[in-house]
C-alpha cells in the first residue's frame, strides 16, 4: 500500500528534492538558456533516446538549424540527414512540419497553452508540458520515464503508470508536489534524481534526498516499481533487400514520405509474404516498387533489428538488373548513386550497415 494521503508531507518532500537539485543538477547543453526552440528540440530528441547519445546530435542540430526559422526553411532531407542514427525518424519529420506551422500560423512565435502545443505534429502531453514549464515557467508537471520511476517508488504506486488510471494518479501526485513558480526546476529535479540516483536497477537510496519519505525504500523493494503489466510480445517479420550495382554505382530508393521511416533512403525490397521464398519476395518487391526485373545472386549479409512495435530480420542479397524501366512506383524516388556519395543520403540504421559494408568493399578494391 502507498502512504495514506493525509499523512504525506508533500511540502517537505518538495523542499528536500529542490534543495538537492540546487547543488546536484546536471549541466546539460539545453539547460544553459531558456530558448523554447532549443528546449523543444532537446525534448523531442530525448524521447526514446539516452542523454549521452542526444548531446552530440543536439549540438550539431542546433549548429545547423540555430533557429525555428532555419529549421522551417530547410529541406526535409537535410533535417533527416542531421537526425540519421538517432532513430525514430517520425520525430524529425514532425519537428520539421511543426516548425513550418509555427512560422506560418504563429508568425514564428511559440504557443502558450497545452492545447495549442498538443495540436502540433509529434507533440504529446509530456513535450508540451516540458516546454511550457521549462521555457515559460508555467506550473505544469512534465513526467518523463525518470520522473515516473521516482514518483512510483516514492508512493509505492501499485498502478501501472502507462495505463490511464496510473497516469492520472501520477499526474495528481506531481501536481500536489509541484511548488508554484518553480515547475521547470521541479520537473528537472525529478528527472535528474531518476537519472542519477533512483536508477532502474540498484538505486542509490543511501544518497537519496527523499529517502525518509520513500515508501518503496521502507518496504525494501524499490526495483519492483514502476509496476508493469505485461505487454504482448513483439511480432517478427522477415524482410529482404537487394543491392543492385552498376560499376561503382548502386541503386537506392526513397521510402514514401509518410509512414514508418518516411523519407529515408534504403536498398529496395520488402516484407516476405507467407509461403514466399526470399528470392521470390525480392523479385516481386522490385517489380512492384521500381518496375524492374532482377536476378537474385548470392546473400550479402543478415541484419536483425527491433523497433518499438516489431522485430525484423533483414536478408540482404546482391542482385543483377535484367529488364524493365526504372520508375518509382511504390516509393518516393529512386536513384543510382556512387558508393562514396551514399553518405549524403539519410538511411535507417539497418540500411546504414549495408552502406558501411559497400564502402568497406570499395576501399579494398
Ligand atoms: S529512496 Fe531509493 S527508491 Fe526511493 S526515491 Fe530515493 S533512490 Fe528512489
Keywords:
Endonuclease III, domain 1, disordered N terminus, 43% helix, elongated, seven-stranded mixed beta sheet, binds iron/sulfur cluster, alpha+beta, 7 strands, 365 residues, 14 helices, 2 domains, Nucleoside Triphosphate Pyrophosphohydrolase
How far the N terminus sits from the C terminus, by CA atoms, comes to: 67 Å
Rg:
24 Å
**Heterogens:** iron/sulfur cluster
The biggest beta sheet is recorded as: 7 strands, mixed
- Share of β-strand residues: 15-25%
| CATH superfamily membership of the largest domain | Hypothetical protein, domain 2
Oligomerization state: single chain
Level of helix content? 40-55%
The number of strands is 7
| SS-based class | alpha+beta
Question: Mean of the pLDDT scores?
Answer: 94
What is the count of DSSP helices, taking H or I runs of 4+ residues? 14
SSE order in H/E notation?
HHHHHHHHHHHHEEEEHEEEH
For the record, the count of structural domains works out to 2
The third-level CATH topology of the largest domain is: Endonuclease III, domain 1
Q: What is the general shape?
A: elongated
Low-confidence segments, given as residue ranges, are 1-5
Query: What is the second-level CATH architecture of the largest domain?
Result: Orthogonal Bundle
Query: What top-tier CATH class of the largest domain fits best?
Result: Mainly Alpha
Notes on the structure:
There is one protein chain. The chain has 365 residues and is an alpha+beta fold. The protein has two domains: 220 residues, Hypothetical protein, domain 2 (Endonuclease III, domain 1, Orthogonal Bundle); 129 residues, Nucleoside Triphosphate Pyrophosphohydrolase (Alpha-Beta Complex). It is 43% helix and 16% strand. The chain has 14 helices and seven strands. Strands 1, 2, 3, 4, 5, 6 and 7 form a seven-stranded mixed beta sheet that branches. Strand 1 and strand 2 form a beta hairpin. The longest helix is centred in the N-terminal third of the chain and has 16 residues. The protein is elongated. The termini are far apart. The N terminus is likely disordered. Iron/sulfur cluster binds next to helix 9 and helix 12.
Amino acid at each position: 500500500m502507498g502512504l495514506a494521503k493525509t499523512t504525506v508531507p508533500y511540502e517537505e518532500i518538495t523542499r528536500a528534492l529542490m534543495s538537492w537539485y540546487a547543488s546536484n543538477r546536471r549541466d546539460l547543453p539545453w539547460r544553459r538558456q531558456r530558448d523554447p526552440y532549443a528546449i523543444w528540440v532537446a525534448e523531442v530528441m530525448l524521447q526514446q533516446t539516452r542523454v549521452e547519445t542526444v548531446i552530440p546530435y543536439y549540438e550539431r542540430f542546433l549548429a545547423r538549424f540555430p533557429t525555428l526559422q532555419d529549421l522551417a526553411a530547410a529541406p526535409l532531407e537535410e533535417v533527416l540527414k542531421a537526425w540519421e542514427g538517432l532513430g525514430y525518424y517520425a520525430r524529425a519529420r514532425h519537428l520539421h512540419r511543426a516548425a513550418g506551422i509555427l512560422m506560418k500560423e504563429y508568425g514564428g512565435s511559440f504557443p502558450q497553452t497545452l492545447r495549442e502545443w498538443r495540436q502540433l505534429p509529434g507533440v504529446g502531453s509530456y513535450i508540451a508540458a516540458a516546454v511550457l514549464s521549462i521555457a515559460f515557467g508555467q506550473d505544469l508537471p512534465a513526467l518523463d520515464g525518470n520522473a515516473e520511476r521516482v514518483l512510483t517508488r516514492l508512493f509505492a504506486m501499485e498502478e501501472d503508470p502507462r495505463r490511464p488510471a496510473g497516469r492520472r494518479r501520477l499526474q495528481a501526485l506531481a501536481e500536489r508536489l509541484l511548488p508554484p513558480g518553480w515547475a521547470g526546476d521541479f520537473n528537472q529535479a525529478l528527472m535528474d534524481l531518476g537519472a542519477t540516483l533512483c536508477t532502474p536497477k540498484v538505486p542509490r537510496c543511501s544518497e537519496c534526498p527523499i529517502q525518509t519519505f520513500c515508501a518503496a525504500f521502507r518496504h525494501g523493494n524499490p526495483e519492483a516499481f514502476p509496476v508493469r503489466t505485461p505487454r504482448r510480445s513483439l511480432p517478427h517479420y522477415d524482410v529482404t533487400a537487394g543491392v543492385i550495382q552498376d560499376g561503382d554505382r548502386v541503386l537506392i530508393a526513397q521510402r514514401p514520405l509518410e509512414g514508418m521511416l518516411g523519407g529515408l533512403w534504403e536498398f529496395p525490397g520488402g516484407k516476405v509474404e507467407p509461403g514466399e521464398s526470399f528470392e521470390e519476395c525480392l523479385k516481386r518487391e522490385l517489380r512492384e516498387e521500381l518496375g524492374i526485373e532482377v536476378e537474385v545472386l548470392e546473400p550479402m549479409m543478415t541484419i536483425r533489428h527491433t523497433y518499438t512495435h516489431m522485430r525484423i530480420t533483414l536478408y540482404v542479397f546482391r542482385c543483377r538488373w535484367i529488364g524493365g524501366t526504372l520508375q518509382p512506383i511504390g516509393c518516393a524516388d529512386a536513384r543510382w548513386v556512387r558508393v562514396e556519395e551514399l553518405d549524403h543520403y539519410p538511411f535507417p540504421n539497418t540500411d546504414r550497415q549495408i552502406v558501411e559494408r559497400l564502402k568497406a568493399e570499395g576501399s579494398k578494391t
